[in-house]
Write a structure and sequence with these properties.
It is a single chain. The chain has 420 residues and is an all-alpha fold. It is 80% helix and 0% strand. It has a single domain, classed as Growth Hormone, Chain: A (Up-down Bundle). It is globular and about 60 Å long.
Length: 420
Amino acid sequence: MTVSSTSTTPHTTGENRSAVHPAVKLLAVLLVAGCLRPPLTSVGPVLDLLGADTGLGTAALGTLGALPLLAFAVLSPLAHGTSSRFGAERVVLWAMVALAAGIAVRSLPGNAWLWAGTAVVGASIALGNVLVPSIVKRDHPGAISRVTGLYTSVMTGFAALASGVAVPIAAATGSGWRWSLAVWAGPALLAAGVWALRMRGTRSRTASAGTAAGMAAPAVPAIRETSVWRSPVAWQVTFFLGLQSATFYLLINWLPAIQTARGVPASAAGWHLFLFQAVGIVSGLTVTVIMGARADQRATGVLMSTPMVAAMAGMLWAPGWSPVWVVLAGISSGSTIVIALALIGLRTRTFAQTAKLSGMAQSVGYLLAAAGPIAAGRLSGGTGSWTPVIVLTAGLALAQACVALWAGRDRYTHPEPGTT
């Protein structure tokens, strides 16, 4: 009897020791989320300094701002296959290490390092963008909207902080824009360390999942798995995310320039960008209450898309009220990114489907988003005015509200198991 007890104990004890506390798992997700935007949002406030130092013109700076988004578009479809081969947790870990390296490299002297480091930054963030929503779907299936709102708010909060401190860091260090960007390598390394701690329980969870999958194997042939690229629902979610991202990244890159062109000091323009994103934190958390547990999110999608249209109209017709319009834009942007990411989980049935939809939505969506900063740079450079850029942003937000009427419906990308 004692022998029997001894023979079974090590296995159980080993699993318990390898298990990671849920708080550590959530903390790891939040730290990764906090690293996914500062490498991008810290650029806008110092874009004029960067351009003056490197000799890049408006069009080239717009392309530089779009480069991470192009990396998102290229690598997002590959994230699911990579995670299937190496494991989602391991891919996220190495993405954080590569992110830290890319941030450091792009701050080195020489334009070649700037472009190369920016490409690595975009590639690393692309993997995190795709895999975090699918990990949330797997680990928190009953609280997708709530957890999505939490990690999105952390992501937005760090993005806002990066915008606000970019110019002060540049002034304090006397190094121009380089330290403003390089400082964010530290949080990426911290996130990698905590994520490595989270991975201690991956092997036992994977083994358990494999056992469960094996027991459920007879049911698999009943599921008709069509390609996510052939699903109308998937395309609707993709376009909603793409339009939301286009307005966000356009403003992240060019809002400070729009502000300074109207006489706002550079430091104040950076804090306006901070305000835009800080408001997004509150709206991102609030919208999860509005969303509730409902599968149908049409009304919420339209309601939260329209303040961006109003904000752009205000910037055109009442520019003296700029802080008010920045707040309105932040409410819209902060809430709609939560809706977009939550839809990826709400419109799929399984972890694998979520990863595939996430890859598709972020590939095509960010390809569309990349056009935003590029178009804004060319419009401003070609016309000598920011008015066409403001009108473009309003048009993108209006299109987003229309797409929400389809993407928000209670539909799935794949048919219910057993249906044909």
